[in-house]
Design goal:
By secondary structure, the chain is α/β, with parallel strands linked by helices. It contains six helices and 17 strands. It folds into two domains: 5-48 and 153-217 and 306-353, FAD/NAD(P)-binding domain (3-Layer(bba) Sandwich), CATH 3.50.50; 91-146 and 219-304, D-Amino Acid Oxidase, subunit A, domain 2 (D-Amino Acid Oxidase, Chain A, domain 2, 2-Layer Sandwich), CATH 3.30.9.10. Helix 1 (15-26) runs parallel beside helix 6 and helix 2 packs across helix 6.
C-alpha cells in the first residue's frame, strides 16, 4: 500500500523538478520530490548556465519561450535570495564570435535580424575592441543576456524548500491513476498523491505507465563540461557557433567553465582524456590561455524531444489532468525552468482546487 499522501508528487530532482517543487510549496501544496540521485546527477550540474536565447540562436517558438524565460530570471533570483542563504548573481554579457570562420556567417545574419529584440553591439570594428587573447577578429556582444551558476541555483532551491518539501531518494518505476488518485511505484516504496509532475528528463521514457501519454521519445544529448582554474579568464561569456560545433566559455570567480555538446548516443558521465584535450583545443581557439588548469570534468545527458516539434512538453499528459510533464528542454533547461515551472504549477494548482 502507498506509504504517504501528498497534493503533488514531483519525479525528478534536477533544475526543472526543483523549480516545480519551489513553486508548488509557495502555493501551499503538500509536495513530495522523488529522485534516486543527488543534484550532481542532474543535467544542470554539467551545465554552463547561460540564459541566452539570442546568443544560442533560438528561433520560432523556442525563441519566444526563451525571451519570456530570460525576462523571468531576475525576479526568480530575487525571490530565491529571500528564501535561501546562497549568494546568486546574474552576470551580463554574452559574446558570439563572427569571424574569421565562414561557418559563423549564418549566425551573423541572425544576430543582425535580432537587433530589434536584443541589446547587441559589434566588437572588432574599432582598434583594441577585443582583448589580445581573443581568437576571433569580430564578434557580437549581446548585453542583455546573462549567465548564472547552476550549482548555486540548485543549492538555493534545496535550501528554500528544505522545510516544506519532502525529498525521498527513490526511483519512480511506474505511474498509475486509480479512482482519481495517482500511485507512483518506486524501487523502495509506493507513494500516492492527487497529481504528479514528471521532470525526469531523458529517463521519463523508462517509467511504466507513461508510454501512452508521451507523443514521442524523450532522449538524452550528452554535454561535457570542464572547470578550469586560471588568472586569465575572459571578461565575458563566449558562445561560439564554429565549424566544430557549439563551444562556450563561462567566467567563474577563479577561472572559467568550458562546455560543448558531445556524442548524443553516449551516456557516460566520465569525460575521457581525449575529450578533455578536444575541449581545451576548442577553447584555446577562442581564448589564448596556456596556463589553464583543469580542476574538474563532468558530463550529463540533456533531455531532447519528445517531441515532434522540438519544443518542450509542458502541461497535462493524461485526459484527466492528473499526470503532468515538464520535459524535453534540450540544452535550455536552465533558461526555461523558472518560467515554465511557474506556468505549469499554476495550472496544476488550479486543477487541484477545482
Amino acid at each position: 500500500m502507498p506509504t504517504t499522501t501528498h497534493d503533488l508528487i514531483i519525479i525528478g530532482g534536477g533544475i526543472a523538478g526543483r523549480f516545480c517543487a519551489w513553486n508548488a510549496t509557495n502555493r501551499g501544496l503538500r509536495t513530495l520530490l522523488l529522485d534516486p540521485d543527488d543534484a550532481r546527477a542532474s543535467a544542470a550540474w554539467a551545465s554552463g548556465g547561460m540564459l541566452a536565447p539570442v546568443a544560442e540562436g533560438l528561433t520560432g517558438g523556442l525563441l519566444e519561450i526563451g525571451l519570456a524565460a530570460r525576462a523571468a530570471w531576475p525576479d526568480a533570483i530575487r525571490r530565491l535570495q529571500q528564501q535561501s542563504a546562497t549568494p546568486l548573481t546574474l552576470d551580463h554579457g554574452i559574446v558570439v564570435p563572427l569571424a574569421p570562420e565562414t561557418s559563423r556567417a549564418p549566425m551573423a545574419g541572425y544576430l543582425e535580424q535580432m537587433r530589434a529584440r536584443a541589446d547587441i553591439v559589434m566588437l572588432g570594428d574599432e582598434p583594441d575592441a577585443l582583448p589580445a587573447q581573443a581568437g576571433f577578429e569580430r564578434a557580437a556582444l549581446v548585453r542583455d543576456e546573462f549567465v548564472v551558476a547552476p550549482r548555486a541555483v540548485l543549492a538555493a532551491l534545496a535550501q528554500a524548500t528544505a522545510d516544506s518539501v519532502e525529498v525521498v531518494r527513490d526511483k519512480a518505476e511506474q505511474i498509475r491513476v486509480v479512482s482519481g488518485a495517482v500511485h507512483v511505484e518506486g524501487t523502495a516504496a509506493a507513494y500516492t498523491g492527487r497529481s504528479v509532475v514528471v521532470c525526469a528528463g531523458h529517463r521519463a521514457g523508462l517509467i511504466r505507465g507513461l508510454e501512452p501519454f508521451l507523443p514521442g521519445t524523450v532522449t538524452g544529448e550528452r554535454g561535457a563540461l570542464l572547470y578550469v582554474r586560471s588568472d586569465n579568464r575572459p571578461p565575458w561569456t563566449i558562445f561560439d557557433h564554429g565549424l566544430t560545433g557549439v563551444t562556450y566559455l563561462v567566467p567563474t570567480d577563479d577561472g572559467y567553465r568550458i562546455g560543448a555538446t558531445a556524442d548524443p548516443e553516449d551516456r557516460c558521465r566520465t569525460v575521457r582524456p581525449e575529450e578533455i584535450d578536444l575541449l581545451l583545443s576548442r577553447a584555446a581557439s577562442l581564448w589564448h590561455d596556456p596556463g589553464a588548469e583543469v580542476v574538474e570534468a563532468v558530463a550529463g545527458a540533456r533531455p531532447v524531444g519528445p517531441l515532434t516539434t522540438g519544443e518542450p512538453l509542458v502541461g497535462p499528459l493524461d485526459p484527466d489532468r492528473r499526470i503532468w510533464g515538464l520535459l524535453g528542454m534540450h540544452r535550455n533547461g536552465i533558461l526555461f525552468s523558472p518560467f515554465l515551472a511557474d506556468k505549469l504549477i499554476e495550472k496544476v494548482a488550479v486543477c487541484l482546487s477545482s
